């Protein structure tokens, strides 16, 4: 059996220079932050500028304070308030979400929730955008073996797992309008694209959603709506999706939030492939350990019904992730996920049992909140995924290392 080994070296060589520059500039930013002034002196300078309504001049002082002491609630609240007044609603919401998920006094919590409400009222059109250049050791996500064994017969593969570089883009826009005190109309459009020099690896999805959100108390909300989606594979139309979604979110205690989401979708394919009916339920819990650290645990279960027994089946998984902001500006994230995908049937010409995949994925992210390019902080992303499958074609390992951009600073 011939086997091609694809390791970190091929991925790392592509990003050796960017990584060195990332760490170098991060160290430069940290060094620049080590000024003689104490936190108390910088705080007084910030308050002085705020009293004169010089928000632009106060902002760098507040940024520096949060970088130095990310666990300080007062520093982060004033930063969020200043960002809100400057119209930087996305960044303000990020800090308010962190504050909302930590232990606060009744007065402080009321102030935080008041600012969150102001953002919802002022910012009717919101959006997000992420961009990554991703070198991978196995861009095709298939076996790395050139020869495989099926039923005791060796087969030579023309295409095997190989390294490549993809561009990942996730973007979305949402319009919200208050219908009355407790009901909000939401209209959104989301784009997920994976672009590659090789046409066969290109994957683009576009999903539109329209629904209503109901919230009678600050602690809980419910939303429901309809969705329409399209998907393109290898630059060709692949499928159309329609369905409905439901979501429920509730704060638990002072530090936690529970979210449950249900999606029911019907997918038709442009080719002669059978239609699919897919039901997905997700449950997650986020716990604010402190204002500079969070942990999230989630589980999901997906059922796919189709006349194609090799596609129909169940997929169940779990994921745990954490985020921690260190003093001096480094922000680190870690996530670990595991899933089991069990299909109902198989093609008897090639296989003797239904496909079953056990997939494990580990991601590590790093960025420095004071090192920015055009309003975004470069983020180093490293990961490995292992898909252990009884289908030899789908048994693979993929390692990746990329630099993306984030607004979470």
What features would you describe in this structure?
The strands form two sheets. This protein has a 14-stranded antiparallel beta barrel. A two-stranded antiparallel sheet has the order 2-3. It is an alpha+beta fold and 409 residues long. Strand 5 and strand 6 form a beta hairpin. Helix 4 (73-85) packs antiparallel against helix 5 (89-100). It is built from six helices and 16 strands. 23% of the residues lie in helices and 49% in strands.
Distance between the termini: 49 Å
| Strand proportion | over 45%
Shape: globular
Number of strands: 16
Keywords:
409 residues, alpha+beta, two-stranded antiparallel ribbon, 16 strands
What's the helix and strand layout?
Layout: H1 8-33, H2 39-51, H3 55-68, H4 73-85, H5 89-100, H6 106-122, E1 125-136, E2 147-150, E3 153-156, E4 164-178, E5 183-196, E6 203-217, E7 220-233, E8 236-252, E9 256-269, E10 276-290, E11 293-306, E12 313-325, E13 330-343, E14 356-368, E15 377-389, E16 396-406
Antiparallel strand pairs: 1-4, 1-16, 2-3, 4-5, 5-6, 6-7, 7-8, 8-9, 9-10, 10-11, 11-12, 12-13, 13-14, 14-15, 15-16
Helix pairs in contact: 2-3, 3-4, 4-5, 5-6
């Amino acid at each position: 059996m011939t086997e091609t080994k694809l390791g970190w070296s091929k991925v790392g060589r592509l990003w050796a220079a960017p990584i060195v520059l990332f760490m170098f500039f991060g160290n430069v930013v940290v060094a620049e932050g080590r000024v003689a002034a104490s936190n108390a002196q910088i705080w007084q300078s910030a308050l002085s500028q705020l009293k004169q309504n010089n928000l632009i001049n106060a902002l760098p002082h507040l940024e520096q304070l949060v970088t130095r002491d990310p666990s300080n609630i007062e520093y982060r609240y004033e930063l969020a308030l200043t960002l809100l007044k400057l119209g930087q609603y996305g960044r303000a919401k990020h800090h308010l979400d962190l504050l909302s998920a930590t232990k606060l006094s009744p007065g402080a919590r009321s102030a935080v929730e008041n600012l969150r409400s102001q953002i919802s009222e002022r910012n009717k059109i919101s959006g997000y955008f992420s961009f990554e250049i991703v070198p991978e050791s196995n861009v095709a996500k298939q076996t790395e073996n050139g020869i495989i064994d099926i039923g005791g017969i060796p087969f030579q593969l023309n295409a095997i797992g190989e390294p490549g570089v993809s561009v990942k883009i996730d973007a979305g826009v949402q319009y919200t309008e208050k219908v009355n005190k407790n009901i909000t109309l939401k209209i959104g459009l989301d784009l997920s694209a994976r672009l590659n020099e090789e046409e066969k690896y290109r994957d683009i999805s576009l999903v539109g959603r329209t629904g209503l959100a109901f919230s009678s108390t600050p602690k809980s909300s419910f939303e429901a709506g309809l969705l329409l989606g399209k998907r393109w594979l290898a630059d060709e139309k692949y499928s159309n999706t329609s369905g409905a979604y439901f979501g429920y979110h509730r704060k638990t205690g002072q530090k936690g939030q529970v979210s449950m989401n249900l999606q029911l979708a019907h997918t038709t394919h442009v080719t002669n492939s059978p239609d699919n009916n897919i039901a997905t339920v997700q449950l997650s819990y986020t716990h604010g350990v402190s204002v500079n650290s969070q942990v999230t645990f989630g589980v999901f279960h997906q059922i796919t019904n189709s006349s194609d027994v090799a596609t129909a089946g169940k997929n169940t998984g779990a994921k745990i992730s954490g985020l921690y902001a260190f003093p001096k500006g480094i922000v680190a994230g870690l996530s670990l996920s595991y899933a089991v995908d069990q299909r109902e049937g198989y093609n008897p010409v090639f296989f003797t049992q239904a496909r079953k995949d056990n997939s494990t994925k580990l991601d590590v992210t790093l960025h420095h909140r004071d090192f920015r390019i055009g309003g975004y902080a470069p983020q180093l992303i490293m990961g490995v995924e292992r898909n252990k499958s009884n289908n030899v074609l789908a048994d693979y390992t993929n390692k990746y290392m990329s630099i993306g951009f984030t607004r979470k600073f």
